[in-house]
Amino acid sequence: MKNFIRLFVCFCCLTVAIPCAADLFTSQDGRFTMDMPAGWTPAKDPAQNSVLSLQKKEARIDIKTADCTTETCLDEHINKDLAEVKTKQMTVLKNTYTDEEIKRIEFSTGEPFYYIHFYTPKSDFSAGYFLLNGQGYSALAKNLTYADTEITLDDLLKHTEIRPEIACRIDRIVSMEGFGEKSFERLNAAIEKARHVSLPKLLYSLGILNVGLSAAKLICSHFHNDLPGKDQQ
Prior knowledge:
12 strands; 4-stranded antiparallel β-sheet; single chain; alpha+beta
């Protein structure tokens, strides 16, 4: 089975900042842009009424305006889509921790995004609805790989980036064998703690020959825990 889709997940839990090529695409209604990994191009056969259709080999994303301005409307639409998927006997991927078929996250702007994952023997899909400045949109993604999900939306009306909150990460990790919500909380706490490393531990982690943690502390103490020449670039 192919890797499941992580639509609009912008950061993995253990990601590091590695520069990479990317492409920027603007929706036809001029309301948002999508910053995509390298290799994506406008679809040669955009979906009907699409404001943005992109493709990369077998992968594809189509975004259309939806006749929705409220979260209740989004919820109704995604439930109808879920019922239709089931009538076509496609397999719906549940959250193995909560057993939910419909997932809900919030963008960093606080606006909601409802989505479902389903698949056939040949293809993986993710479908969802989101609000952007009160305008509803539908999104359908097909055969995305993990590398293809480093996506950032930019609200052109507010000029703010829209990044999903931590809920998507919880969905993926708590569904792994041996993990649950408590395991995720411990993992996330460890990651947050690792963001703040003392200078001696940083120096020790470089693996310099004959410089253990004690030696690293002595060196940093000599320089008053400051890096000499740090302002000389």
